[in-house]
Each structure stands twice: as structure tokens, then as C-alpha cells.
Amino acid sequence: MVLVIPDVLQESCSTRQALERFAAKWRVLLIYALLAGPQRHAQLRRRLPGISQKVLTETLRGMEADGLVRRRVVKASAPQHVEYELTDLGHTLEKPLAAICEWAASQPAAEEG
Asked: Do 86 and 34 meet the contact criterion of CB atoms below 8 Å apart?
């Protein structure tokens, strides 16, 4: 089997486009948070200290548009209850992200100096 390495420097490269989407600061962290199962907006904010309500909403909307996250209205009457969960496509990222974590854990700790 020959390993094909895409030319990620080309703007039209689908791998580059995917990497650019994941380069957004909160996307990978939201995927990790949602691996635990469906969660409400407030739960996600508590799990991701430092994310603003606006950025969380915008990021979730973008991930929904990309097919990674599903927004589900559980209770339509006020106060509305909405949950977010990973789609099947979103769950396919679990193994690649686990591989990155494994790689990071195997590296020597960076020395401060």
C-alpha cells in the first residue's frame, strides 16, 4: 500500500480545508466535550472555561453547518431546552484525535527556560 500525501499547501486541497476548519481554537475542544454525549449550551460553557457565549454559539453553528454537530430542541416551550451532540461524522474524529493525544503524551515535557 502506497501512502498518498496530499499537497496541503494548495488552497483547493480538501485536507487543507479540513485542517483550516479544525484550526479554530474551540472546535477540537468542543468535539472532546461532546464525546461524552449530548450536552446543553450551559454545560459546554462550564466545561470550556474561557469561551464566551457568543463564540460558543458561533462555533456550534459552524460545526452544525459542517455536519459535525446536531442541534436538537428537547423542549420547545419557554424556557427552551436545546442539546448539542456529535453526528456520526463528528464521531469519526474520535480515533484521529485520540492518536494526537497519544502522540502528545509520548513527547518529553517541554522545559521552561
From this structure: yes
Q: Residue 39 and residue 32: Cα distance in Å, rounded?
A: 12
Q: How many CB atoms lie within 10 A of CB 113?
A: 3
pTM, 2 dp: 0.79
**Closest-CA residue to 25 (of 51, 47, 49):** 51
Q: 10 Å Cβ neighbour count for 83?
A: 18
Within 8 A by CB and 6+ apart from 68, the residues are 31, 86, 87, 89, 90, 93
Cell 459542517, residue? 66
Rounded to an integer, what distance in angstroms lies between the CA atom of residue 44 and that of residue 56? 8
The per-residue pLDDT for range 41-88, each reduced to its tens digit, is 999 999 999 999 999 999 999 999 999 999 999 877 778 889 999 999
Number of neighbours of residue 66 by Cβ within 10 angstroms: 15
CA atoms within 13 A on the CB side of 109: 3
Q: What is the DSSP letter of 2?
A: P
